[in-house]
Structures are given as C-alpha cells and as structure tokens.
Amino acid sequence: MSKIAAGITGVHGWVPEYRLDNDELSTMVETSDEWIMQRIGIKERRILKAGATSDMGAKAVEGLLKKTGTAPGEVDLLICATITSDYHFPSAANLIADKAGIKGAWSFDISAACSGFVYGLQTAAAFVGSGQYKKVVLVGADMMSAITDYTDRTTCPLFGDGAAAVMIEAVDENLGVMDAILEADGSGMQNLHMKAGGSAFPASHETVDAREHFVYQEGQAVFKVAVSKMADVSVEIMEKNKLTPESLNWLVPHQANMRIIEAVARRMGISKEKVMINIEKYGNTTAATIPLCLWEWEPLLKKGDNLILAAFGGGFTWGSLYLKWAYDGKKNND
C-alpha cells in the first residue's frame, strides 16, 4: 500500500491577555528595553496569570475544532509538544483532550523543548500516513513563566506563554509533509537544562534554595550551536529537495532570538520578507512558537506554498521539516 500524504488542514492559536513588556521587566531585574531589543529582539511576552499549560492547549484545540468544523469525537489522536506539562503525570495531552471534550482518542506528550512541534509534526504525519488515523491534533503549548527565574536577567527576558494547535489529515499526494531531518545530541544538556525536579535531582530544600527548578542557559554557547545547527539542517533540506530561495515561499523558524533567525535566513539565501517573525510580540514560547507563526500568517498562506520549519532546542534537539501547504488560508479566515 502506498503511503498516504499527510498535511496541516487547520491551525488555531491562543495566548494569554497579560503582556509583560520590557519596561515592566526592567523594574524586576537590571535590564532595559534597549538592551533586550538589541540582543534578543523581544518587546513583550504574554504571561498566564491563572491556569496551566493544559488550559492554554485546550483553548487552542477548542478554537481549532470550531474553525475546522470537527466534532471532538472525530479526533483519533492528540499529541502535545511541551516541556511544561501541568504534572509529571498525567500528560498534558491527556488533560487537554479531557478539557476539550475529546473522548475515545488516545494522547501523549512529546518532550523535545523548542524542537517539540517539528518532532511532533513528523510523528503526527506518520500516524496519518499509516492509514490507521484520519484526524490527528498536534498542540504546541508551554507555560514558560512557570520555570523562568525572574531574578536572572540573562533568561527572564526570553520566555513567554502560549499555545497553538494544528489538524493533520490526509491531503493530496503532492501536498503536506514532504521531508524532515531531525537530530539530537544529549551532550548539550550541560549548556541548556532545568537541573532539579527529575530523578537525577529530586526536589528538596537544597534544590529549591539553589534555584535549580528554573531554566539554566549558557547563552553564548547555545547561540553558537543554535545558529550552526538550524542553518545547516535548513540548507540541507533545501538542497535535498532541490528548493531554491526563489521557490521557497516561507521560512518558519523557532522564535528564540532575532539574531539567530536572521543568521539562518542569510545562510539559506532568503530575504526577511519570506521569514515569519513574531518574536517581538510573544517572545520564546518554546514548542508554541512555530504554530503561533502559522496561525498568524495563515491568511497569507496559499495551497502549494513551500515552507521550511526549523527549530533548535534544549537537549540538544534540532531539525527542519519541508511542508507544502495544503489549503488557501484566507478561506479559513473569511
């Protein structure tokens, strides 16, 4: 049996109302709007004041189901890409499905940090491609404010909260997920991790006092590796699929740092007009950054558009995915 083509047939996002801008942040730590904008490119980030990751994910899924005219009972599988699940267990995916009224489907989380959505999209496409599953919902959701140390000026300007969900279904043969290159290197853990709370360092008075339940990042080291890996894998997938800067319609990069995004685009030889960028408004929402871009740019996307999704995350994890857009986005927004 020939493989079934699988693609995105709908997208919807949700972000909290509260905006934490650079001016307010500068009252919490020694920083400034100018410093953050020059080095990172973030103006504000959304913060969830009440609730958890599954609440944001459920809002995104409910909007997606309504937008695509899908009954909750039609969903076969729900996958959530997150590193900030409400609990160690059950999974955020289980809680999202329950809150969105999805019954009779199975669900699980993918933990790949900022690469989670790209990992998840390849996984969801494989389930649809198997022929066993007709409708798979993939959610990228993270409440990064829950693991951000707002006394650490090197990390607290980076992160925000948000969620977005996509529907993956069978599509025409020449559309959907065409190719993916996904990689990982566990030795990168030393540069980007959250030390405590797992089996290696269970929660204790000592770990709490040492502030080890927050994101730890060695910024300069991570920056160098992120630029190299994201750019290399994005160029590789272009060459492998004979894509040129002219035939590529959109680069959808993980929104971690404006300088990383610009460096990757330069290596790929594409202009800034072809790059989806919303980091200024939302900051780094980890697994949610790429689908939030797709949600925001949906009205501009046309059936057959060539997209490359690229990400780099803690772990280290990284990858790129070549996607041919499956529908005219403007129709879903009329």
What is the element layout, followed by pairings?
Layout: E1 6-14, E2 19-21, H1 22-25, H2 33-39, E3 44-46, H3 53-68, E4 77-81, H4 92-99, E5 106-110, H5 116-129, E6 136-143, E7 161-170, E8 176-184, E9 192-193, H6 205-209, E10 216-217, H7 219-240, E11 250-253, H8 258-268, H9 279-282, H10 289-297, E12 306-313, E13 317-324
Parallel strand pairs: 4-5, 4-6, 11-12
Antiparallel strand pairs: 1-7, 2-3, 6-7, 8-13, 9-10, 12-13
Helix pairs in contact: 3-4, 7-8
**Average residue-wise pLDDT:** 97
Alpha-carbon distance between the two ends: 38 Å
Beta strand count: 13
Q: Which value, in Å, is the CA radius of gyration?
A: 19 Å
Reported for the largest beta sheet, the result is:
5 strands, mixed
CATH homology-level superfamily of the largest domain? Thiolase/Chalcone synthase
CATH fold-level label of the largest domain? Peroxisomal Thiolase, Chain A, domain 1
* Helix share, percent: 25-40%
- SSE order, one letter for each helix or strand: EEHHEHEHEHEEEEHEHEHHHEE
How many helices? The count is 10
Spatial strand sequence of the major β-sheet: 1-7-6-4-5
CATH architecture of the largest domain: 3-Layer(aba) Sandwich
Structural class: alpha/beta
Domain count: the total is 2
CATH C-level class of the largest domain: Alpha Beta
Poorly predicted regions? none
From the spread of the alpha carbons, the general shape counts as globular
Beta fraction of the residues?
Answer: 15-25%
Explain what the structure shows.
The structure is a single chain. The termini are far apart. This protein has helices at 22-25, 33-39, 53-68, 92-99, 116-129, 205-209, 219-240, 258-268, 279-282, 289-297; strands spanning 6-14, 19-21, 44-46, 77-81, 106-110, 136-143, 161-170, 176-184, 192-193, 216-217, 250-253, 306-313, 317-324. The chain has 2 domains: 6-174, Peroxisomal Thiolase, Chain A, domain 1 (3-Layer(aba) Sandwich); 177-333, 3-Layer(aba) Sandwich (Peroxisomal Thiolase, Chain A, domain 1), CATH 3.40.47.10. It has 334 residues and is of the alpha/beta class. Helix 4 (92-99) links the parallel strand 4 (77-81) and strand 5. The mean pLDDT is 97. It contains 10 helices and 13 strands. It is globular and about 55 Å long. The strands form 4 sheets. A 5-stranded mixed beta sheet has the order 1-7-6-4-5, sandwiched between helices. It has a 4-stranded mixed beta sheet with strand order 8-13-12-11, sandwiched between helices.
